[in-house]
């Protein structure tokens, strides 16, 4: 294929007709179609099927490295369900002096009674502690079209005639949000490829605006410490909630254990009787048992009573590793298992916990979100 190069209108990768095993492959006859999309995007769009061909994290970071040399507005999209897991650490280093508008997606997943002012204050505090200076925060749901008008208003307020770079980790909802912009505010007819699978956008995709500037969609950064990156792809629809989470409250005595499917285990090792609230996908069953029986139960029943995942899928996931956690007296905390959800510790009495999660998954103790 000659060097002057078509790009896939789904993911932005440079198209090629030579090697089906490489990114950007398109059969020659498909070049005549409009829009032209690579075989990988075609399979995602029509069959919800993911290709094993994905770019690595170094390539992602190289693509972001030039943003600081531009005069742009940067929109950082974060997943409210996995805030710490989807925040791009060191983003300030890449963007230089460009302003950052923090867009927090998936607000529709939180329970209806949520105090949104409290959530906004919590987000600002967490961002600041992570070294991120943001000009503003917008809460939204790309899927439910909530908060979109406010995002457009803030976009107009802070853009000041500049290009807009949209950055975020995989599965934070970038492509869904940008498709709304394409549909409503751009002449571009095609939509980006959106999928439940990480790494859908593979290159910079420029969306022209009426004033000659562009919205630039960047590839999602893949963080290997999120459970969603470590599980087999068919498990993702179970892990990722698609509707409002129904929190489940458990009154536990010390030396009791909760299993979250077969993905993780929560041991209440020491402390007075107290309540723990689970915020996980409604598709994930929580199983309670005594701590003294937990090892035996997991060894004998993982992939059966304790599922998902299935036994076959468990073989593709790293083994569980222990994380001791101390909650101080009077500390209102969440324990986040990145990519899975979190458990809120409701008692002011303090607790000694042990979290078991697949090796490499990030565990975060934070001030309670709700």
Automatic annotation (TrEMBL):
InterPro entries: G_CP_dom (IPR030378), GTP-bd (IPR006073), GTP-bd_ribosome_bgen_YqeH (IPR019988), Mito_lipid_metab_GTPase (IPR050896), NOA1/YqeH-like_C (IPR048422), P-loop_NTPase (IPR027417)
Record domain CP-type G: where: 61-224
One Pfam family linked to the record: MMR_HSR1
PROSITE patterns: G_CP (PS51721)
Transmembrane segments: none
Domain of life: Bacteria
NCBIfam families assigned to the protein according to its UniProt record, in alphabetical order: GTPase_YqeH
Protein name: Ribosome biogenesis GTPase YqeH
Species, as recorded: Paenibacillus residui
Classification lineage: Bacteria, Bacillati, Bacillota, Bacilli, Bacillales
């Amino acid at each position: 294929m000659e060097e002057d190069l078509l790009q896939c209108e789904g993911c932005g990768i440079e198209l090629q007709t030579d090697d089906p095993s490489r990114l950007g492959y398109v059969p020659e006859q498909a070049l005549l179609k409009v829009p032209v999309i690579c075989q990988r995007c075609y399979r995602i769009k029509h069959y919800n099927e993911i290709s094993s061909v994905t770019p690595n994290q170094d390539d992602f970071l190289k693509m972001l490295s030039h943003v600081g040399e531009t005069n742009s507005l940067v929109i950082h999209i974060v997943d409210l369900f996995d805030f710490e897991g989807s925040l791009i650490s060191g983003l300030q280093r890449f963007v230089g002096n460009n302003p950052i508008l923090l867009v927090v997606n998936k607000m529709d997943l939180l329970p209806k009674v949520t105090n949104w002012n409290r959530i906004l204050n919590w987000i600002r505090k967490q961002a600041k502690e992570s070294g991120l200076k943001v000009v503003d925060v917008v809460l939204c749901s790309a899927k439910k079209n909530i908060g979109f008008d406010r995002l457009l208003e803030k976009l107009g307020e802070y853009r000041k005639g500049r290009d807009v770079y949209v950055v975020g980790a995989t599965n934070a909802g970038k492509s869904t949000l940008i498709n709304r912009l394409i549909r409503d505010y751009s002449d571009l007819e095609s939509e980006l490829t959106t999928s439940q699978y990480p790494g859908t956008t593979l290159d910079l995709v420029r969306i022209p605006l009426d004033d000659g500037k562009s919205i630039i969609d960047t590839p999602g950064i893949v963080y290997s410490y999120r459970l969603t990156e470590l599980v087999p792809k068919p498990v993702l629809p179970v892990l990722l909630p698609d509707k409002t989470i129904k929190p489940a409250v458990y009154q536990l005595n010390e030396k009791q254990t909760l299993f979250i499917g077969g993905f993780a285990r929560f041991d209440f090792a020491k402390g007075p009787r107290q309540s723990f609230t689970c915020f996980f996908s409604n598709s994930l069953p929580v199983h309670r048992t005594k701590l003294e029986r937990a090892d035996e139960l997991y060894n004998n029943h993982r992939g059966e009573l304790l599922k998902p995942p299935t036994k076959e899928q468990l073989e593709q996931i790293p083994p569980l590793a222990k994380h001791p956690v101390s909650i101080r007296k009077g500390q209102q905390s969440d324990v986040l298992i990145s990519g899975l959800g979190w458990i809120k510790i409701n008692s002011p009495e303090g607790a000694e916990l042990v979290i078991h999660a697949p090796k490499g998954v990030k565990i975060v103790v934070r001030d309670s979100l709700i």
